Amino acid sequence: MAPTEFTTQVLKCDPSSITFPSSSDEPQISSEATLEALKLASHHLVDLGQTVVFPTETVYGLGALALDATAASKIFLTKGRPPDNPLIVHVSSFKMLHSLLPPGYAIPKSYEILMKHFWPGALTLLFPRNPDVVPTIITANQPTVAIRMPSHPVARALIAIANAPLAAPSANTSGKPSPTKADHVYRDLNGKLGLILDGGACGVGLESTVVDGLHEDGNIRVLRPGGITVEDIERVLRKDIHDLGNIPKVLVHKRDYADEQMESAPTTPGMKYRHYSPAVPVNLLLTIPSLSGIEPTTRFSDYIGSLRKDDGNESVKIGVLAATDSKLWEFIQPEDGIVWCRYPLGPLAEPSVIAHHLFDGLLSLEKEGVHLMLIEEVDEDREGLAIMNRVRKAASESVRIELQ
Ligand code: TXA
Ligand code: MG
Questions:
Q1: How far is the CA of 178 from the centre of ligand 2 (A)?
Q2: CA angle at 52 for the pair 46 and 53, rounded to the nearest 5°
Q3: How much distance in Å is there from the Cα of 305 to the middle of ligand 2?
Q4: Mean pLDDT calculated for residue range 366-384
Q5: Average pLDDT over all residues of the chain
Q6: Sign of the Cα pseudo-torsion (172, 178, 180, 181, in order)
Q7: Which protein residue's CA is at the shortest distance from atom 23 of ligand 1?
Q8: Which residues contact 28 (CB under 8 A, 6 or more apart)?
Q9: Which of 159, 217, 267, 332 lies at a 20 to 30 A Cα distance from 148?
């Protein structure tokens, strides 16, 4: 069936009605409507082999049966996703994780620690692929498969009820910002799939951290920074590994190491393909003094002047995203020929709040019909690393500005 023939149904699910009693992988669901929605979603996935959109704690996912190549192929069709970009497989239990791994595979100690602290949660780990179980369409012919156990009750309950691992990329047309609300998905993919489960806004707001700990040196390579921070990973490894000489290093791709082979294969977002870009240009404003101090700087007022429309008659509508307490706001003043649309992202001292709002900010300003967005950089510590990873990819150009 062509992907545009669907009537898209949106069903609310109440995450607070779902619990996983300790020592059980089966959800208990107190809301009848939520249970019915989850059962219908499971029917779409398992019996019809269709895609279903569901909320996770990071972003909304476009799910399909991971172990059914025909079902999984619909994800690529619906998103317009290049086939050489592998998918993350989502599991609801450790038993399900083990069913995906090669027989007899011993999980590395570092992974055991990371799973103990961060699963279920916003951490994706690469494992060796079991070719007898995981179809090549999932891994894009990589020897590894990316797996995570989401903590969002709706996601975990859906996987448990379907009783099958679900492949799920972010539920957006390839290249667009990831959706953090059901409405974002509906606006983008309405008509291309049958069912969206609406579980409210995603808590983290950025995708999971993708980690490769399979190299012989035992080090942890962060392929994509995300909801679990590098600082968090370093902290738990230091806490749980008592032999100080054996604590793995945490290396961030492009910051701490380069990997030409990986960069030529698009195994992690944004390395080959356009990513996170709304329909209008995004310009990155660099305001944190650079270490080199030699880059040319433009006065903000001059920069704003350069954005006005040449003919002088029509106003330009500019969206601005910056931390709530940024100095930038003092310079966003009424100006002839400019209509400002402001989206304060959250306090500078709380990058997790900025992360939570980032994609909603890009998508809300797009919906408001701005012609251009300006986004101010943040420090690259904690969630700031993942925020700037996404912002750099969203931005078509950057300019170092002086606030005066
Ligand atoms: O938070 C998330 O991770 C969300 C939610 C829905 O779980 N999913 C998500 O999926 O962000 P996606 O497809 O948009 O990004 C996952 C990225 C892929 O782009 C891919 O580059 C990387 O994970 N990946 C998947 N399998 C891989 C593998 N075997 N080796 C290296 N990278 C892999
Ligand atoms: Mg994505």
A1: 6
A2: 150
A3: 35
A4: 97
A5: 94
A6: negative
A7: 268
A8: 18, 19, 20, 21
A9: 217
Q: What is the token pair recorded at 166?
A: 């679900």
Per-residue tokens: 153: 């009750």
Note the pTM of the prediction, 2 decimals.
Answer: 0.96
Q: If you ran DSSP here, which 8-state letter would residue 245 be given?
A: G
- Asked if residue 210 lies in contact with residue 146, where contact means CB atoms within 8 angstroms, the answer is yes
Question: For residue 317, what pLDDT band results from cuts at 50, 70 and 90?
Answer: very high
Q: Where are the beta strands (DSSP E) in 226-379?
A: 250-252, 282-286, 298-299, 316-322, 338-344, 372-376
Q: How does pLDDT run across 278-295, given as a tens digit for each residue? A: 999 999 999 998 777 677
Residue 41 is encoded by which pair of tokens?
Answer: 């979603």
For β-strands 209-212 and 220-224, DSSP reports them as: antiparallel
Of 118-122, 254-258, 373-377, 384-388, the range with the lowest mean pLDDT is: 254-258
Ligand 1 centre and the CA of 244: distance in Å?
32
- pLDDT for res 299: 94
Give residue 146's identity as a one-letter amino acid code. Answer: A
Is residue 75 within 6 Å of ligand 1 at its C-beta?
no
Give me the residues paired with residue 342 across strands.
320
